[in-house]
């Protein structure tokens, strides 16, 4: 993705390694040559139903618990692997493998009731033992990524009460934990297949893994032992493209049925013919953040941060950089989270106010800041736009583009930057601002306290406190939230059943259908 | 008629050079500022229209000429300054020294500028200077080869043999006899390499391995235009034309120089 940097489901991260690999997977995909894929002829009666899906972030491995990177859960989560609970299209937690669950009064003990019907693709039942084995494996942490183990950290013990009931005891209450169990950390693996997870994913989803041709495609086939309402699709190919424009061309020439995420929103009009294509426009969890290094004394000054927020016309930026697609959010909360509030008006574009604030802060004669960005599709154009606008309020912006691995070591890990731009795409990642060691070095104990209380409080308290926390961040101009990455999915007219919003890391195919 | 190459090449380069010279002091608009609506078609005041961010395309082309020439001059002169002496030494030395130097150049020849640029970008970050270094290093072997081949021809001539028999020090032989005689050949190569360097710089910028996104370069303009190709194909045309003009200009000039300097061709005419 060096050139046109396809991307895109970077998983952003509390821990460096997580993000590293997320992007590394993108880069690996970038090195890949475009593969010629021909769509099979329209199936007549009895021929298999095949879906070809264009994607840009190839997995780096097949076990979501041992490899980082968003490419892996994108393909496998909910499709091949299932979790006790899942996130639905509205961002809410819904039962999946667990028929239902109950929580103790102190919010520390969760009891999950399994269906008793669910089966792995190997035709063995998904029982309480499988859940305990899967969770224990994560808790033991051998070879498991930090990303996954950190999510299981609140857990004290996991035990099977009977063959269909699992009891999980937490060290302290955590709303985030249950949410995280709907993601890669909460996957229930087939105990019989644990030794070969890195080559042969073993789950209980509607699809089973068939083949991975590195650099070209991942193939899934229908799981005939599926316990729920099975899919009518026989085979799915996730085909990887280094160049998003090449992917668009493949779609236009009929080689693909679905573009899983359009990373060149400017090209959307190419799919404007409603007789041929369906365009799905929704939201994601990807906040594109202009991050400030709070260790920099200039940026530690609230007035400077506010001036920058006032000095950037974010709507014009989205129009220029991302084809006008992408919502303005104003804080670190995605619209599918229950505590979302539109905070995008906190600092509306006002160059006069920006100049005045800079003057108050003592930078009447201007100041110079380094904007070091990774070479990802949105970052360099956004940097160019921001440099042009901030120049008008007297801030000289020196743009530096860093190849992603280098960005990770210098900016993300070593903190050698003043400002940077990256999309944080993990669901519910506002907690990163509560960690003073995170690369923003934002240290606000009052905010951290709110986040902690929200995590431990009741559902209602959580919503109230999270709203408060999001507002606090926005008022404090802790960063400049440029826009929210849109979920742009293109399908042929025949395809249906895809979610509008990307609320998890999965490209959810569980209800996809085609009447081709 | 034989001079057509020379003339056309010269004119094209004159246009580019004067653009760069003007660009040092003046452009219609600031090449980095947002000076108009997005994707405005060519007209007035934006003669070549505006790009996807609303910057004036003409200003960016003019400003880009400066950088294209700068990278060309820096990388080609660096390559010539290293490559030519090595080539002359190889051409004047005994068999094994010559072999080592030539094979060394061959090994270097195996690394394309693109690969070097990616390595540099990974090691120290992409910038104008890493682009210059990558293109410069990748151009060295060409100069080594050309200089060596030309030197060997000169070395077999009687006047050089006479100089050597009269115990003239090798350095003096190289300076007095070899260099002046191979200079025309090198001149042709400089012109051709210059065109290639500008093309390579555009390629690196296109890939995001060159100057930062706030520096307008032709390659970067092409890259930015790519995403708008469907909506505004003209935006990609201008930087493409500029690159084609510069590359063609230097190549034609090189061809023209070769024709001019080649005595055999001169006799035929």
TrEMBL record, chain B:
Name this polypeptide is given: ABC transporter permease
BP-aspect Gene Ontology terms: transmembrane transport
Bilayer disposition of the protein: Multi-pass membrane protein
Keyword match Cell membrane: yes
Localization in the cell: Cell membrane
Native source species: Tessaracoccus antarcticus
Matching CDD domains: TM_PBP2 (cd06261)
Domain ABC transmembrane type-1: 65-254
GO cellular component: plasma membrane
One Pfam entry name: BPD_transp_1
Domain of life per record: Bacteria
Principal subcellular localization: membrane
Keywords: Cell membrane, Membrane, Transmembrane, Transmembrane helix, Transport
TM segment ranges: 7-29, 67-92, 104-123, 129-147, 229-254
Keyword Transmembrane helix set for record: yes
Family: Belongs to the binding-protein-dependent transport system permease family.
SUPFAM superfamilies from the UniProt entry: MetI-like
